[in-house]
Amino acid sequence: MKTSAPLTVETVITHAPGVFRAELDGTLLVAAHFGEQGHCMDPVGLAIWENLAEPRSINSLCELLCDRYEVERTECERDVLEFISQLLDKRMLVIA
Prior knowledge:
Elements: E1 12-15, E2 20-24, E3 27-31, E4 39-41, H1 43-50, E5 56-57, H2 58-68, H3 73-89, E6 93-95
Antiparallel strand pairs: 1-5, 1-6, 2-3, 3-4
């Protein structure tokens, strides 16, 4: 399922209801429903996931990530928008 509206840094995102998650050795596996193909997340993906437990704008998320990691703002926005889009397509996140 593709997102209907283009994502911007002002878009507010949060976890989709009923998402299955499992963590092992710093890697997080998330699936829209138990038994479906999931998405493995590295530590940066895990940081993004944890910070979307409550609705948050992509702009706010990028502020947190730029403070936490050594990354340029434009690069962070580009990568986060792409990552969020993938998780929206897999029904793991929703636009709040």
